[in-house]
Amino acid sequence: MTAPDKKGRSRPPHFHNHRERLRSRFHKSGGSDFRDYELLELILFQAIPRVDTKPIAKALLEQFGSFAAVLAAPEPRLMEVEGVGKNTAHHLRVIHTAAQRFLEDEVTDRPLLGSWSAVVDYCRAAMAYEPIEQLRVLFLDKKNVLIANEVQQTGTVDHTPVYPREVVKRALELSSTAIIVVHNHPSGDPTPSRADIAMTKSLVEIASPLGIAVHDHIIIGKKDHVSFRDLELI
Known about the structure:
Helix 2 crosses helix 3, helix 2 crosses helix 6 and helix 6 runs antiparallel to helix 7. The chain folds into two domains: about 90 residues, DNA polymerase, domain 1 (Orthogonal Bundle); about 120 residues, Cytidine Deaminase, domain 2 (3-Layer(aba) Sandwich), CATH 3.40.140.10. It has nine helices and seven strands; from the N terminus they run E-E-H-H-H-H-H-H-H-E-E-H-E-H-E-E. Helix content is about 45%, strand content about 15%. The strands form two sheets. It has a five-stranded mixed β-sheet, sandwiched between helices. It has a two-stranded antiparallel sheet with strand order 1-2. It is of the alpha+beta class and about 230 residues long. The radius of gyration is 22 Å and the shape is elongated.
């Protein structure tokens, strides 16, 4: 609802010009100079057309800690923030899925060992903020091109049951000659556990005689990742 001016004429809400200024800045710079809350504001414009979205954007960042964490948050958690309804939460999740799809395209139909940073970026976007552990396997052909990208197992907040024989069985079904194993640590700390190391050793021992190489096991945390290859654990 617009407030009247001194002559009784309706005037636009105070944030109307702010929205136009923000859109104009984005068109000029592409958003490279935007702070996180400003970019989030711009996204929220599409879902909340007649409300000042700056306080909502700042509240979301305060609640979840980062721009990426806001986009990755489950819809029920997003709706705990004042001003965020079902449609807005859904809109943010669509943006997150679109970002994942963009990054997934960067690792599709090309040798993954030559696109390692893209692999890590995709896995971080897909898994870093998942509330429970999941095991993802990237199945590669003899040219190290991605054949399939599958979540093999999910678990609890700190444990995923991993069955190396099932992973190898799936690789044989896909005629895959190499795999990259990825899983997340919801705690945020990507340090390998003893169970992680033992599972990886078992997987290598089962896969190697069948001609399937385990290129790496990557653990994804919220801010960082760990490569078993870099740690010389493979």
